[in-house]
Structure formats: C-alpha cells, structure tokens
Design brief:
It contains twelve helices and four strands. By secondary structure, it is of the alpha+beta class. A hairpin with a 2-residue loop joins β2 and β3.
C-alpha cells in the first residue's frame, strides 16, 4: 500500500510541477512592474519575459546561467531557477534557500505560495495550511493573498473539517469581495460543492448503482490523496465509509454505471492507464 501511495503522490506531484512552471513565472513577473525595479533588475526581467512570450522554456533553462552571470545576485533570476527546477526535492530546497537569502516583499509571496503548494500536492495539509495562512497574514494587500486564503480552505477540506473551511471562505469573501477567488468561495458557501467528505445518498430505483472501487484505506488522508490524483486527471470519484469489525475503512469509488459490465470495462481501463487495482461494487 505504501508503495502504491508513493507512486500516486509522485504522479500528482509531476502534474503539479508542469502546471506551475508556466503559471508561477508568468504571474510573478507580470505583477511586478518594471518601473518599481532597479535598472539592472528591470533589464533582467525583460530578458526573461522575452522567453516567456515565446513560450520557450527550454531556451530559458539553457541561457539562465548566462543571465545569472550577467545579472549577479538577482532575486528574480533565483526565483526563475527555482521555478524551472523539475525535481521536487531540489526545487523545494531552492525555494527554501531563497527565503533565507532574499527578503524582498515583492518576491516572497509567490515563493511562499509555491512552497505551500508543494506541501499540499504531497499531502502535507497541516503544513500547507499554515503556510497559506502566513501569506494572507503577512501580505494582506498582495495579489496572491486571496488565493492563499482559498487554498487554506482547501487544506481544511482535505482534513475533513467543513466548518473551518467555511470560516476561511467567509473571511475571503469579506476581505476581497471583488476577487475571482471570492467568487469561487461564494459558490462553495452556497453549496455548489461539498467541502466535507460526506456519505453519498443511496441511489433511487432505476439509477446507476455500480461503481469501480480503487482503494480501501484505513485513513481518510490516504483516501483523499488518491481522490486528489484522480481529480487532477479529470476523473470524478467519491469517498464512502465501511466498518469491518472494529475497523473503519475509507473506500474510493470511481464512476457510476447502470450495469456491472460497464463498470468492469472502466476498471480495466483505469488499471491499464494508471496501474491501480480495482473491484466492481454494487450498492
């Protein structure tokens, strides 16, 4: 089981890195106006932006050492190097080193957000929650503060604490009423998405009632981790509970089918594509 969870965590982490490579660079560089920077820093930023506008990350990686030599002690280039580091542990170390060396308030929020996202992607929800809240507290006027609050709510959700998640969402809406993340929060608060892991209602007669079970976990966190992996692939799933003697198990059910043959076929597809074991269950 630990080996399988390690594979799931690694896959999810890889998808997370691919997404953030583009977003983290473009967001951070475009929210920092060149006029607010020193002359050398502004020139360095413009050179990096030239690569980004072409979408040429490989060329940026290749030429980064030359840029660092041309603009020594650049916080922006240190940030770029960290973002472009594809190995998870090495990237996290680069961000940690950044926080020790540079204390520029313009660069710290995206760096801290990136570190918190790393922890969230790896399933360290308590650490991630505290890091997101730190950003919101220390940099309340930064453009990333609303996103940090929203992600803090997601951490509470992952730990199955709906009340705490809703408190954070209400705070987000109150402090940043016109922000896009506040709009998401309002949808959550209106019940369009469930912030708690709840038992699904029994299906009515004639509705689909076959499911593909891909895991039976002794801890809710491990079930959430696999659910997170499938969500990143665009696959809907639900967590159900079951008691076996004195043990409580958390079952992950994927899909919803009207007959066992359809569920079996889908289970085979999941097994082949994602290397997960499965069984068909009927409710």
């Amino acid at each position: 089981m630990k080996k399988n969870l390690s594979k799931i965590r690694t896959s999810a982490f890889g998808a997370f890195l691919a997404f953030w490579e583009t977003r983290a660079l473009v967001l951070a560089l475009f929210i920092l106006p060149g006029a607010a920077l020193g002359a050398k820093a502004a020139h360095a930023q413009q050179e990096v932006l030239a690569y980004l506008q072409k979408g040429d990350f490989s060329a940026l990686r290749q030429n980064l050492p030359a840029l660092e030599k041309k603009y020594p002690n650049s916080a922006m280039l240190a940030y770029v190097r960290a973002v472009l580091t594809t190995d998870g542990k090495a990237a996290f170390k680069a961000y940690s080193d950044f926080t020790q060396k540079y204390h520029n308030a313009k660069w710290l929020p995206p760096v801290l957000l990136r570190m918190a996202q790393f922890h969230y992607a790896q399933g360290y929800y308590i650490s991630a929650r505290e890091e997101f809240l730190r950003i919101a507290r220390q940099f309340p006027n930064h453009v990333l503060a609303p996103e940090a609050l929203y992600n803090a709510a997601l951490c509470w959700r992952a730990m199955a604490s709906a009340d705490s998640a809703q408190k954070i969402l209400k705070l987000l809406v109150q402090k940043y009423p016109k922000n896009s993340f506040s709009e998401l929060a309002l949808k959550e608060l209106k019940g369009r998405e469930d912030f708690a892991v709840q038992k699904s209602p029994s299906p009515e007669k004639g509705t689909p009632h076959f499911f593909v079970q891909t895991g039976a976990f002794s801890s809710r966190e491990n079930a959430l981790l696999q659910q997170q992996f499938f969500e990143q692939k665009g696959i809907k799933s639900q967590i159900r509970t079951k008691r076996v003697g004195s043990r409580k198990l958390y079952l992950l059910w994927v899909g919803s089918f009207s007959n066992a043959a359809q569920a079996e076929k889908y289970g085979q597809t999941l097994q082949k594509k994602y290397k997960v074991s499965y069984r068909v269950v009927e409710q």
